Amino acid sequence: MSRIVSLLPAATEIAGVLGLMGDVVGVSHECDFPAEANKRPRVTHCPVHNAGLTSKEVDEWVRGALRDRGTIYTIDEPLVRQLRPDVILTQKLCDVCAVGYGTVTRLAETLPGPPRVVNLEPSSVSDILNDIRPVADACGVPERAEEAISGLSARVENVRRRAAQVDRPTCFLMEWVDPPFCCGHWAPELVEIAGGYDPLGRKHERSVQVSWDQVLDAQPEVMVLALCGYNVTRAQRDFELLRTYRAFESIPAARDGRIYLVDAGALFARPGPRIVDSLELLAGILHPDRFPEFTKSLFVQRCSAMRSA
Length: 309
What we know:
Helix 6 (132-138) runs antiparallel to helix 7 and helix 7 (142-163) packs parallel to helix 12 (275-286). The protein has two domains: 4-149, 3-Layer(aba) Sandwich (Rossmann fold); 167-306, Rossmann fold (3-Layer(aba) Sandwich), CATH 3.40.50.1980. Strand 9, helix 8 (187-193) and strand 10 (202-203) form a beta-alpha-beta unit. The strands form four sheets. The chain has a five-stranded mixed β-sheet with strand order 8-7-11-12-13, sandwiched between helices. A four-stranded parallel β-sheet has the order 2-1-5-6, with helices on both faces. It is 37% helix and 14% strand. By secondary structure, the chain is of the alpha/beta class.
């Protein structure tokens, strides 16, 4: 049995699929799935988490914090010492996603043991699934990883196979509205596997800010607002802002009522096992006739009823 501290929601979900939640003794402030995570002590904090700021205010605060302090999070070092972890699950993919990797490793070096630090740094769908292995290895249950990966991979291949021969609509997977950001890393690949093409996405690279003119020039047939850290209700506020942007009505997705809000906080922006749920949801959005079983979800809302006249 290992005492696990997870500093990353995706890592907590990996612990869940491996049957290790009983070994998890501490989690980050964002870890909320599986349900048992909500019963664990929170070892990190972010001042803007659930602070009610607008997207522009969040963006400005994050940029300023990274410039001035190099991080947007704090870690409760006394609590981590009290929890005495054998394994710490973290990442160095994105400074906006979790406590900085250097901070974690420096702390770990001062702890008894010291604990093993497992870095998860995926940039593709296969990377996300393969990240299950190092977690399983560190926690002494390597055989459980293969079963989990096999099941998830089969679901990915089911979508890939069924979407292989479809006409591919252009789909802008939008990561942020104010200012506009395209998606990166694994997200454009999700669109591709699901039977679409993201003209602005940066496959296996970091997401970046884009101009609104670039969005207008792309003329996406489908838009999916997968706003980092936001659920569907919070994304609704940004959709109302998006509708005020110049020439919004000229975008085919707006004209045809094919703009969707998704729970990116739970799915698209969280590189854990439920990334496969994201893929299936996206397949249902892009090709509802071919994937009818994926068209009903609490994690998605179509905005056709709210489109401008």
